What we know:
With 416 residues, the chain is mainly alpha-helical. The protein has a single domain, classed as MFS general substrate transporter like domains (Growth Hormone, Chain: A, Up-down Bundle), CATH 1.20.1250.20. It contains 17 helices and no strands. It has helices at residues 10-24, 26-33, 35-42, 46-74, 76-97, 100-128, 134-142, 144-163, 165-186, 233-246, 248-251, 253-260, 265-293, 298-322, 324-352, 357-386, 390-410. It is globular and about 50 Å long. 61% of the residues are buried.
Amino acid sequence: xxxxxxxGQGVPVVVVSMVVLGIGSSLGFLPGYFVAAVxxxxxxSRAQVGLLVSLHFGCTGLGSIICARxxxxxxxxxxxxxxxxxxxGAAWGAAILDSYAALLVASVLAGFAYALANAxxxxxxxxxxxxxxxxxxxxxxxxxxxxxxLIGAVLVPWASDxxxxxxxxxxxxxxxxxxxxxASAVIPDRRSVRLRPQAGEPVPARSGGGRFWSPAxxxxxxxxxxxxxxxxxxxxxxxxFLVGSSQPLYSWxxxxxxxxxxxxxxxxxxxxxxxxxxxxxxMSLSALRADRIGRRxxxxxxxxxxxxxxxxxxxVMSGLRLGLAVASAGLFAGLIVxxxxxxxxxxxxxxxxxxxxxxxxxxxxTGYYLGALATPVxxxxxxxxxxxxxWAWLFMALGSVAAAAxxxxxxxxxxx
Length: 416
C-alpha cells in the first residue's frame, strides 16, 4: 500500500527526516573530528582514520541500489527505523570493544544502514510536499547532515580530548535510539507497488533515444516494477565527482586547519562548525531559487555551483601560503556551494524519475557515496606520503571540474 500524505504532514516529515539523516551519517563524520584522540589511543595513521570515513560512505554507495529495493518492499518507516537501530548498535559496539577492528565493522554496518534512510526519506519528502517546494524540502532534509557536522566539529574535538572517543560514540548511539523512536511515530509507511499508468498520464520509457516524458510512451518494466530513463546513470557519475571532490572539506578540515595551518583544535573545530552551519542556511536559500527557476534550469545551476566549488577548494589550498583566514574563507564558500549543489541535485533526481524515486535515489547515491569512499582515505594517504596538503587539495579541485562536466551531460537525460 502507498500511504497518502496530506499537506499538514509535510513539515514534521521533513524535520524528522533531517534529524535521522544527521544521526545516520554521524559515524561517517566523527572519525574526522576525534582523529587526534583515536590516533593517540589506538596508534593508527591518518590513512587508517580516513579509511573509517571511506568505508562508511563507500558501503552506503554499494548498498544504495539494494537498499532502495528493500525500502520499496518493507516501507519507508521500517527502513528509517532499521537505519537508526543499526547505527545505535554499531556505535555502542565500537565504543565498548575499543579497537580499530570494531571501528571498521561499525563503519561498514552504519554505512549500509544509511542507504536505507537516504532512499526512504527522499520517498516520503517527495510525497509530502508540492513540486513548487520540492527543492526547499529536500534541501532542508539534507541540511541535517551539515548541521550534524556543525555539532560534531564544535564539540567532538574538545569532548574526545576530555573524555575519549568512546564516550562520543556512546552519545551518538543513544541519539540513534531516540531517532528510531521518533521516526516510528512520524515517518509515514509508503511502499512501492506495481505501477499502472493512468489515462493521459506521462510515463517513463526504457528505450527511445533517452527521452523520458512522452505521453505516447509505455511503462515497460520487469514484473511491473518502476524503471528509470535511459542514461540516468550520468547522475550517479556526476554525484561521484561532486561528493568525492568536496567530502574532505568535512572529514579533513579540522586536521588541516590544526596541523597544516597551525590553528588550535578548538579554533579549527569552531571554524569548521561555523562553515557547516552557514552552509546549511545558504542551502535553504539556494533551494528557494532552485524552486523558482523550475525543472529545466536546476541541473545547469548545479553545473555552475560545481565550477564555483573548484575555485573554493583552490582558495582552501592557498591557505598554506596565505594563512588561516584565507583558508577559512575558502572553506565557508566551498561548503555553501557544495550543499547548495547537493540539495538541488536531490530535486533534479526526483524531477527526472518521479515514478521511481527510491530507485533513482539508490542509483544516484551509489555514485555519491562511492565518491565519499574514494577521497577520505586517498586524501589522508596523499598527505602521509607527500607530507603536504597541497597535492591532495589540487586533486579535489580537478574532481569538481569533472563534476561540472558530468552534470552538463546528465542534463541531457530525459525530456522535461
